[in-house]
Amino acid sequence: MGKDIRNHISLVDKTPLLPNDKTEEELVLGAIYTDFSNYDQITDLITSDDYFYHIQHRQLWKQLKKDIEDGRSKPDPVTYIGTLTAIATHQERSNFLNELETLGSGVGDVRRHAEILKEFWTKRKGILFSHKLRKELSTAQGSVKATDILSQSSSDMIDLILDSNSDSTAVCPEHFLDRRIACMKDRVERGNILTNMPFVDKTLTGGGFLPGKITILVGRPSGGKTIVRKNWEKYWCESGVGVFSLPFEPGIDDDMDRMDSLVTGIPIEELKRVKDWDYDDSRKSVVVEAQERITSKWYLTYNDSNRINIDTLPMYIRQTRKVHRVDIVTIDVLAAMSGVTVRTGLTDSINYHLKMLRRIAKDLFVHILVVTHLSRDFEKNKSKIKKPTMAEIKQSGGYEEDADQIFAVWRPRTYNQELPNDFQEIIVLKQKDGPAGPDYASWNRIFKATLRLENFTDLDPYSV
Description:
The chain is of the alpha/beta class. The chain is built from 16 helices and 9 strands.
């Protein structure tokens, strides 16, 4: 078996040892060859040439991509005949294109056929990965016993995939081994991404905010959700974490004012009245120094463009990564993102976007923090005002279903002005792999002027 796999690279078309479906490949190619507009439907599924197993299909795919990217509206048969060098004669190439055009004209859902190609591609990658792993283990220094066990495991997986009676597929992403090594290296270099709130950090499992996960931050009106988010962002940036901030609801200008207030200690009301400052006001130099620090030393990017929606978000994250690292994406609030209400019903739309965000978090290896509102129904009866629960999350139960962690912000003084302190409780409502509930909370004194939070330690904020 190992020898066959080693030979497959040079004998792809002569010895079809790996899983493939020639007809499905021709259906996809034919659909695009007859109508270039079908290309846009599958670009997110077929991302590389090796999704096509047969050499002549790869040649055709490359030419199709080139023509479409060059802005051509239809193929030139003469060009394609010259491209198909894997087919021996001119007549055979012409016949192949004619058959392809006939097949393509009858394809209804090209995306479904592309998904089938992806399944075969995944199986082939699984086989090649197993071979690579076995080869590396056989030459590695270490326990012979461990090598034998892993070698046998890879052989079993190969047999399972090639078994024509088996419906199983290999769950093995491309470059799986390299990705795992990169993941562990990143965790060591980056360290834990926490909140700087001791009690909350103590309850966080797995090292805090991990890549591929989603955290939901909820709160009632005027509860201080944005204050918490900005304090977290400031702490993350000072710790060398890359933050991609999407302040859809507050807007970039207000969000940057909040960050300037946090960094400089200048009350936000004064920052908004900068035009009233004297020419030689010392606060101006403080703000300039803060801006220089943010732009030169922090990995922080803002964007609230209407062009950002759930489909274009991955592109914006990748573009930002060309400039600096991105570890966490913050969204305030999801319901304000462009395109959220386009689908049937706001609740269904939110559920769809949450599932897509989970996929983006996993694919791009980032953590996503989503800020959202709690329902205002509780305000109808002031006597029953209590700490927030997950049942009060506004618009969608999908938050509870898809989130790995849910934090609720509770600000009692909003409803009881007689309390001696203006403070928050950050309550851990949900945590998939750790403790949660109303008993797990962190108390923070609010300095409203500068939006800074100060941790209470061993004190009761209700009485101090």
